[in-house]
Write a structure and sequence with these properties.
2 copies of one chain form a homodimer. By secondary structure, chain A is α/β, with parallel strands linked by helices. Chain A has 11 helices and 13 strands. In chain A, α1 runs parallel beside α8, α3 packs parallel to α5 and α9 crosses α11. Chain A is globular and about 65 Å long.
Chain lengths: 303, 303
């Protein structure tokens, strides 16, 4: 099954209490595709500049990731610089250079237009809507990520694209900004009225809550001894979650629960190292082992 | 089985975005005992003033709560005034009048000294230690709650009492202040060196993590449509958690997992209304129903 992702591919300068990296590989489509490709075929639509070379392209090689939609344009790639304090709750953005990303107009290669599943990463809602319109057939599901910048600044186009969406993935602050509701159980009612039938709320180190027509689920984050760099955790989760759903071709409640665990496990690898360092090397067996440990951990046996 | 709690019984003035109450019943021992008494016999050691009358005493009546250790002294009861913003993360303390609580020296009635289990609520570590020394026999387990005020200001006596403790219940900020570790999995190693073999970290609306010699567990908070007043949630959780453990007389990993759910469910009732309003009226059947719903919610069925 093929999962199409539109988003950013970038260079990140990151500093955390445990170290720093410069010009490390980053971007939502990067984390998403490396994660999702552990489960299914991925097709990327994104843009990079002339500074995105063989070395960076090599990270995607030998994985089921189709790069025909990765546009190379004159200029520099999207470059983000950020820092985290000791509590890792939120990145402090120090610099954002959109570069070639400023004029990004996603264009789907002909071969992408029949993709089975679609993930609209965090870009302008107008562009997300344009991607939906370029699809030759309606995907089996469409998932979407967004941020407060679009929620407050591009409300109307965001509401239009949400009508097309089945699965919304956001964090606590975003779902509150979008719905005006403090409690996620009530926010879910508002989200359903907007379009998506499934709401995934990411709580960072406190895990994930899942709201579906069949019921509510929540799972903690996979417990780690050390978090080195939280950058990309949310996109990695989305990749593991949606990649798993694409692989099994189901979207019922049990499937969504398992997908939640799959996403959390992938994210746990990402945050153990800087950038995509760990996500690049993790093996299917390591993923499976951690998934088994995680399932055992949250199981409540009868007394 | 008898569970002895030492802590505060107080009047609270509380304001949240959803309303306000003045001179409402509060205090750690109050929430704890109302919650724990749903599962086991509770004995309170605390102090109140002359303003604590028939009406307040009536709340504890017709429950398995022994009040022989509730000392009545000349003066006023402990009085706390606080407010919550929209996000409910943290109470802003507006006023604290310790009143009779300022000279509180817990004295255990003779009949209390053989209690099976002991919960040391959040009071000065010197007093907690004094309570341990007044016990005629070592309880089957001792649990303890504390706060940053004691962690930074009474470190040495806190470390002494922790040597006597089996179960430590704290929130994220407290476990970090106590151990200097950001990741709870690593903080647990430090906590074990200090004494307690079980660490319960309360994440507020994001649930609870449990660290034991047999493994790690985490559960979300019970999902509610509306939180009215988070005051007392942590003490109510402790009461449900420890009351359940006392009832079943086990402290193994499966028992601790079930106790976590029991504590979370009791806390979900507390926060639905102001003060102890909901905790006073909740029935065993309502508790059992919510516990069944909660267990179903977090269960991950095989695919």
């Amino acid at each position: 099954m093929s999962l199409l992702v539109v988003g950013s591919v970038a260079f990140d300068d990151v500093e955390t209490p445990l170290g720093r990296r410069e010009r490390a590989l980053g971007g939502s489509a990067t984390y998403f595709s490396l994660s999702a490709s552990q489960h299914t075929d991925v097709r990327i639509v994104a843009v990079v500049g002339e500074d995105f070379g063989e070395k960076e392209m090599g990270v995607f090689k030998d994985r089921p990731i189709d790069l025909h939609g990765l546009e190379h344009r004159p200029g520099k790639s999207f470059h983000w610089k950020g820092a985290y304090q000791w509590d890792f709750n939120e990145a402090k953005t120090l610099e954002t250079h959109l570069n070639v990303f400023a004029d990004f107009h996603p264009r789907l290669p002909e071969t992408y237009r029949g993709s089975d599943y679609l993930f609209l990463g965090n870009i302008a809602p107008e562009l997300q809507l344009d991607v939906v319109r370029q699809m030759a057939t309606r995907p089996k599901w469409i998932a979407l990520d967004t941020m407060n910048y679009w929620i407050s600044g591009s409300r109307e186009p965001l509401e239009r694209v949400l009508k097309e969406v089945d699965i919304l993935l956001v964090n606590d602050g975003e779902v509150r900004a979008l719905t005006g509701e403090r409690q996620n159980a009530r926010a879910y009612q508002r989200v359903r009225e907007m379009g998506p039938s499934v709401l995934v709320v990411k709580h960072g180190e406190f895990g994930v809550s899942l709201f579906t027509p069949e019921g509510v689920f929540a799972a903690p984050a996979y417990p780690l001894e050390e978090v080195v760099d939280p950058t990309g955790a949310g996109d990695t989760f989305a990749g593991g979650f949606l990649g798993f759903l694409a692989r099994i071709g189901r979207m019922d409640f049990p499937a969504l629960k398992h997908a939640t665990l799959a996403g959390s496990v992938l994210a746990s690898f990402t945050v153990e190292r800087f950038s995509t360092e760990r996500l690049e090397t993790v093996s299917p067996r390591e993923i499976q082992e951690r998934l088994t440990l995680f399932s055992d951990m949250i199981r409540v046996e009868a007394l």
